[in-house]
Amino acid sequence: MPTEIASAALLRRQGLTPVDEFFGEAREHKRPLVNSGEGVQDRRGKVHYFVGLDVAGKAILADDEREWKKLHKQLIEDRKHVVVARHTP
Predict the structure, then answer these.
(1) Which contiguous run of DSSP H or E holds residue 5?
(2) Domain ranges within the chain, ordered by starting residue
């Protein structure tokens, strides 16, 4: 199921560093969880908006706030349509 929260450790394994931005400077944050809309920095040093995780656990990223809003809305809609298989003995 798509989610709006990821662990910082999971994002680091994908080559992304969670960051806070102060005065235009990106600094690594120490919180264990990253919420949708927070910044993550790729290996090249570019900061993206974290949107969420897809069903495979891969990070969904946006380049600007406008794109983040669009993708975030789509992620919420996708969550409504995920069918969860139930095991009945």
Answers:
(1) strand 5-7
(2) 5-80
